[in-house]
Design goal:
Length: 326
């Protein structure tokens, strides 16, 4: 029997994070060791509670470690203040949120573990008997802090799969994707930590955007995961229509679950290339995904550091998710 992939998931739950958690819990070839929460889509209190709610709905007792409430340095530099508010609009007195304050699930009956998430990473990875895959689908603060505490933990990380960044796409500033923009300094630490890194950026996730018809396919599975995934797709499309009434997309990328599926099945990704990637840390380029285009700069001191998915296969992704949720 093939060994299961040992996984730690890092989330800022979040609508699409919720689908990622369901995919990881339901994946027959993954052993989910822990889920770490972080501030991002919402403050860390909310992302932690939302994470616990999703796990409870799945009947999972996987431990949840509460992570960092603030980015590494961004919140102490007055011109770089992050926002944990999320996008919203009010139409006819009704509020529409891409990420509601709390997911519409029963409140969690258990709490997160005592140990903060970065300490958990250090403690677990120092003593890990087998290498672990980390799938990070929120800002990268927890991992950056853990690496700063003990860089040796890299030797027990088999791969870090990151949902974040964008080469031709951006969603939080004209040049930046949200997870990277929310803590650019952490992202720059993590992508240069020496671990094997797979980046699943917006360029890939937007190719897999789901419509309301796709939501109905998930709903037709007749399972909790199928129904909840469908509800979240509908909620995100409705929120987008309310927020961008002049040019609604009428579809929505469930970004974070693509990273979970891709961790074990790279065939859902397309055009994966090894590149040199850095993160813009200031001014107009803050949080931008910078890819070195010219070979002459790729010297021995400036090497390629990540596998970057420039595209993805929507139908392959949808059918894997449907299998997991059926
Ligand atoms: C990423 O930003 C968050 O809002 C989503 O949960 C996803 O992780 C997409 O840019
Ligand atoms: Ca997320």
């Amino acid at each position: 029997m093939e060994k299961k992939m040992k996984v730690i998931l890092d989330v800022d739950t979040g609508t699409d994070d919720a689908v990622a958690i369901m995919a990881a819990v339901k994946h027959p070839d993954m052993e989910l060791l822990a889920v770490c929460s972080v501030a991002g889509n919402k403050p860390v209190e909310n992302t932690t509670e939302n994470t616990l709610r999703v796990l409870q709905a799945l009947g999972s007792d996987v431990p949840v470690y509460r992570g960092c409430a603030e980015p590494l340095v961004k919140s102490i530099t007055p011109t770089r203040i992050p926002d944990h508010g999320g996008t919203m609009a009010v139409v006819d007195g009704k509020e529409y949120h891409v990420h509601p304050e709390y997911l519409d699930l029963p409140a969690s009956e258990r709490s997160h573990e005592d140990m903060p998430a970065p300490m958990f990473y250090v403690d677990y990875l120092r003593h890990a008997k087998e290498p672990v895959t980390i799938i990070a689908v929120g800002p990268l603060t927890n991992l950056a802090v853990a690496l700063l505490m003990d860089h040796d933990i890299v030797k027990n990380i088999s791969r870090i799969v990151i949902m974040g960044g964008g080469f031709m796409c951006a969603n939080r500033s004209p040049v930046a994707e949200f997870n990277i923009w929310a803590d650019p300094d952490a992202a720059q630490w993590v992508i240069h930590c020496g671990a094997d890194i797979l980046m699943v950026p917006l360029d890939a996730t937007v190719k897999t955007a789901f419509t309301k018809a796709d939501a109905e396919d998930f709903r037709s599975l007749g399972t909790f995961c199928g129904d909840f995934c469908a509800d979240l797709i509908d909620l995100r499309i409705d929120a987008d229509r309310a927020i961008n009434p002049e040019c609604p997309d009428n579809n929505t990328a469930i970004h974070d679950a693509l990273a979970v599926v891709a961790a074990l099945d790279a065939s859902v990704l397309r055009d994966v290339e090894r590149v040199r990637c850095d993160i813009g840390l200031a001014d107009f380029a803050e949080g931008a995904t910078l890819i070195t285009r010219s070979k002459e700069f790729l010297t021995s001191g400036f090497v390629k550091n990540v596998d970057f998915a420039f595209s993805a296969d929507k139908e392959a992704y949808k059918s894997r998710l449907m299998e997991l949720f059926s």
